[in-house]
Amino acid sequence: MSLSGLYVVATPIGNLEDISYRAVNILSAVDLIAAEDTRHSRVLLAHYNITTGMQAFHEHNEARVADQLLRRIRSGEAVALISDAGTPLISDPGYRLVKSAREAGLPVWAVPGPSAITAALSVAGLPSDRFVFEGFLPAKSAARKKKLEALGNETGTLVFFESSHRIEATISNMQEVFGDQRLAAVCRELTKKFETVLRAPLAEIVAQLATDKNQTKGEFVILVDGYNGNEDESLLSAYRMATALLDYLPASQAARVAAKLNEVPRRKVYQSLEEAGK
Question: How far apart are CA 216 and CA 238, in angstroms?
């Protein structure tokens, strides 16, 4: 290959035909491909008759293998970095390698292409001028809700990755924190045979996932509409209603009724009551 260095190559997120001509040429011409999972990537390489050798490069061996790859690049070789799907470094290994290559003054070349984030933003029908990518949320519910609460006032569209075994719990947590009516989109199996996009208020998505278990299978990108400021008025209305209901109901029940009628998160109403000493 005429130019040595590290080539960061985007690969398909599902449909093998989504790879670029340049990516195929680069992967065919480099001296080595550093792949997150060589068994997985072998399917893609075989589809395009690419015979370049591969080196496993994942989160468990990144520190050790990165030094080996840098030595090869220093010697004049070209190395391509790919992940299992999409653009490397986005919730995938590679940051340490790219950072070290840059710090060593070695060339790093971008070979752009598929990304689940931009694919989801392009079809979700939610604002795409500003967005915040948060990757995977914490596995445990308490930590997950704490993270979501910290994002409660973010005005840009929120973007998350999620797996099939946590999708229902995560959407339920989002409903609890952001409220029933916050608009969201659950993009499932993008570019694959069973691709679907559920776009609705969070309460409706929770109900759809509960009634159609096919919608809980696969890989997911979740997008949630950003905070728009109108929730403050609804929350104030809910707080006033809950305060009035305290003459007849315990605080937890008053908060639940007021939150439901005003379509705001119950937790926020109850927290307001506690802060006011109700």
Answer: 33
End-to-end CA distance of the chain: 72
pTM: 0.83
201-to-28, 95, 113, 175, 192 alpha-carbon distances in Å: 46, 35, 31, 9, 25
Q: Do residues 23 and 97 touch, judged by C-beta distance below 8 A?
A: no
**What is the pLDDT confidence band of residue 1, given thresholds at 50, 70 and 90?**
low
**DSSP state at residue 222:** E
Residue 23 · residue 9 · CB < 8 Å: yes
Question: Which residues touch 22 (CB under 8 Å, ≥6 apart)?
Answer: 111
Check residues 270 and 45 and name the one with the higher pLDDT: 45
Burial 182-194 (b: 16+ CB within 10 A, else e): bbbbbbbbbbeee
- The 10 Å Cβ neighbour count of residue 199 is 16
Starting at the edge strand that comes first in sequence, how are the strands of the sheet with 108-111 ordered?
54-56, 32-35, 78-82, 5-9, 108-111
Torsion of the alpha carbons at 94, 95, 100 and 101, rounded to the nearest 10: 60
For position 232, what pLDDT does the model report? Answer: 67
Measure the CA–CA gap between 104 and 65, rounded to whole angstroms.
Answer: 16
